[in-house]
Amino acid sequence: MSKRDYYEVLGVDQNASVDEVKKAYRKLARKYHPDVNKEADAEEKFKEVKEAYDTLSDPQKKARYDQFGHADPNQGFGGAGDFGGGFGDIFDMFFGGGGRRNPNAPRQGADLQYTMTLEFKEAVFGKETEIEIPREETCQTCTGSGAKPGTKPETCSHCGGSGQLNVEQNTPFGRVVNRRVCHHCQGTGKFIKEKCTTCGGKGKVRKRKKINVKVPAGIDHGQQLRVSGQGEAGTNGGPPGDLFVVFNVKPHEFFERDGDDIYCEMPLTFAQVALGDEIEVPTLNGKVKLKIPAGTQTGTNFRLRGKGVPNVHGRGQGDQHVKVRVVTPKNLTEKEKDLIREFAQMSGGQPDEQNDNFFAKVKRAFKG
Questions:
Q1: Percent helix, strand and coil across the chain, each rounded to 5?
Q2: How does pLDDT run across 82-128, given as a tens digit for each residue?
């Protein structure tokens, strides 16, 4: 199968400038890159575009191609040519220049995580507290350079400050250039002749830092709070990372929480639910009175609006849900037993009408 004309592949004319060739290449490379385009022939088209770009972006190769076309005697095996250039553009396009990142550019420090345990009500109402965390900070002796005061790091003579070494290798398919981390400077691009005695040339020191944390009211178990700029120190003058405080909230012996709502269960006697009563119910803000209507059934739920947890984002406040549970008395006296027997005889020993449907369902269940 004959090769297409390189100018046709990129969609440019023979007088196109280097910038026009690069612009056309980037557009097509993005379109046909196998990680983006899942069509069956995308990889072949991508290779074709890459090959055309490698030739037309190099003045010497372009001149030979304009003279000989694909029959260039110096091109070797089918025009595979030099694999050393062009891949940097792919890295720039898809990975933000990953293959050419400047080792001396400012970089943000790492983020830290701290787990804070709170009592139930501390999470509900919030608190202000001080925590202590171990972290790396910029060395004050050398101001982060890693060099002894009065000196400064020198540019690595092996990699020229790039932090990478190009290793060339001739193969049957052309000249291959591999980029490797410079082992002389460990990729920093710098060489420190006299190291700072405080940090040993690292530019950072390990310290324990006290930080004031304001826990917002309404924080829940598993949620986290971001404290900007309290993470590890940056590199080469970059900003510090952030601190993420993750909260572990202890359970309460009486209240249960679901989102911004609070749930609790109140034990009542048969007399209270049968005759009605006014009881006191504990809430997060103290006791409140709750009226129990006569004939209240066990399992009935009452809602106390606005007695729940304040929303952590400031969007109102939840409710408190009170569930009634009738407690069956134990260790009755003979007089109490006689009164209950008398009540049973007066009621005929049958449930009242409002429970007829429930008991009918139970009977049908036993009958199958």
A1: 25, 30, 45
A2: 434 444 444 444 444 444 566 677 888 889 999 999 999 999 999 99
DSSP string over 285-310: TEEEEEEE-TTPPTT-EEEETT-SPB
What are the pLDDT digits (tens) for 107-116?
Answer: 888 899 999 9
DSSP-assigned letters across all residues of 99-162: GG--TTS-BPPPPEEEEEEE-HHHHHH-EEEEEEEEEEEE-TTTTTS-BPTT--PEEPTTTTTS
How far is residue 194's CA from residue 153's CA, in Å, rounded to a whole number? 8
The radius of gyration of the chain's CA atoms, rounded to the nearest angstrom, is 38
- CA separation for the pair 111, 234 (Å, rounded): 10
DSSP 3-state assignment of 229? coil
Cross-strand bridge partners of residue 176:
169
Least confident of 187-196, 321-330, 331-340, 350-359: 350-359
Q: What is the DSSP letter of 265?
A: E
CB of 164 closer than 8 Å to CB of 236: no
- Phi-psi category of 278—alpha, beta or left, where left has phi over 0 and alpha has psi -120 to 50? beta
What residues have CB less than 8 Å from 134, skipping those under 6 apart?
Answer: 206, 207, 208, 209
Q: Could you tell me the two tokens for 148?
A: 């002894």
CB of 265 within 8 A of CB of 325?
yes
**CA nearest neighbour of 142 among 181, 103, 177, 194:** 194
Residue with tokens 């002389």: 184
In what order do the strands lie in the sheet containing 112-118?
112-118, 243-249, 224-227
In the chain, the amino acid numbered 226 is R
Kindly state the tokens that stand for 290: 């709750």
CA dist 282 and 287 (Å) reads 4
CB 329 within 8 A of CB 269: yes
Predicted pLDDT of residue 186: 78
- For residue range 3-55, what is the model confidence (pLDDT) as tens digits? 788 888 899 888 888 888 888 888 888 888 776 777 888 888 888 888 888 88
> Is the pLDDT higher at 176 or at 191?
191
Task: Give the DSSP H or E segment for 118.
Answer: strand 112-118
Amino acid present at 206: R
